[in-house]
C-alpha cells in the first residue's frame, strides 16, 4: 500500500466519506527544500456527514486526527477541501 492509499484508507475508516479524492502532488514539488525528507504533497477533497455544522478549522483537525502518525511521518504538505453533504464542492480548472 503506497502513501496515497494509506491516506485514503485512514480517511475512509475514520470519517466515512460520501466522496473522497486524494491526489499525490509530490511530483509538482520535486526539489522543494521542505520535502527533502521524502514526505509528500497531497490534495484531499472530502465530503462527510461528520463535517455537518462543524467549522472549517474543526474539520481540518478531524482530518489531521484521522491521519495521525501518517501525517507526522509521510506528509509534508496537505491541501484540504472539506464539505458536508449539503455543501457544494468548488473545483478549480
Question: How would you summarize the topology of this molecule?
Answer:
Elements: H1 3-15, E1 19-24, E2 40-47, H2 56-74, E3 75-83
Parallel strand pairs: 2-3
Antiparallel strand pairs: 1-2
What features would you describe in this structure?
The protein is α+β, with helices and mostly antiparallel strands. The chain has a single domain (3-83), classed as GMP Synthetase, Chain A, domain 3 (2-Layer Sandwich). The chain has helices at residues 3-15, 56-74, and strands at 19-24, 40-47, 75-83. Helix 1 (3-15) runs antiparallel to helix 2 (56-74). The model has no long low-confidence stretch (mean pLDDT 85).
CATH topology: GMP Synthetase, Chain A, domain 3
SSE sequence, one letter per element = HEEHE
By CATH, the superfamily comes out as BolA-like
How many domain units? Answer: 1
Structural class designation: alpha+beta
Compute the number of strand runs: 3
The proportion of strand residues reads 15-25%
Treating each run of at least 4 consecutive H or I residues as one helix, how many helices?
2
- Cα-atom radius of gyration: 13 Å
CATH top level is Alpha Beta
Mean pLDDT: 85
Q: Estimate percent helicity.
A: 25-40%
| CATH architecture verdict | 2-Layer Sandwich
Q: How far apart, in Å, are the first and last alpha carbons?
A: 29 Å
The strand order across the widest sheet is 1-2-3
In short:
The chain has two helices and three strands, in the order H-E-E-H-E. The protein has 93 residues and is of the alpha+beta class.
Descriptive terms for the model:
2 helices, GMP Synthetase, Chain A, domain 3, single chain, 3 strands, alpha+beta
